[in-house]
Amino acid sequence: MGASIDRGGNGRGRTRWKPKAEINVTPFVDVMLVLLIVFMVTAPFLTIGIQVDMPETEARNLPAAEEPLTVTITAEGQIYLQETEVNFDELVPRLEAIAEAGYESRVFIRSDGRASWDQIAPVMARISDAGFTRLGLVTDPVDQ
Q1: CATH architecture, domain 56-141
Q2: pLDDT over 70 for what percent of the chain?
Q3: Least confident of 12-26, 43-57, 96-110
Q4: Judging by beta carbons within 10 Å of its beta carbon (0-12, 13-18, 19+), is residue 44 exposed, middle or buried?
C-alpha cells in the first residue's frame, strides 16, 4: 500500500500524508500466471492410468463429449473401474451404483493384449448384467 499527499482544500498549510485505499493486483496476477503454468504442465500427467499393452488396429477414434466410463483388464486378470481396482464379484454392484446416478453413456473396455478372451468375456457379461448395453473395446492405433 502506498501513501499519497493530501494537500487540503486550497494548497496552503501543512501537507498531510494519508493512506491510499487501493489494492495492488500485480502480485495476484503473478501468482495466477505461475499457477496456470503449473497446471498446464501437470495436466497431461493426470490422464495416465493403468498401464496395459492394448492390441493395435486400424480403427479410427470415436469422438467423446464426456469422459467415458472405463473398465480395464490387465494381463494378470486384475479388473479396474476407472483407476480403482475391483474384484470380479464387486463389479456389478459398483456399476449399478453408477447407473443409478444417471450414467447412461458408453462403457469402454481396455484390455491388455496378453489377456485371454476367457478373462475378457466374463467381465463384458458382468457389465451387461449391470444394465450397460453400449460397450466399446479400446485398442491402440497402428503406427504408420
Answers
A1: 2-Layer Sandwich (3.30)
A2: 68
A3: 43-57
A4: exposed
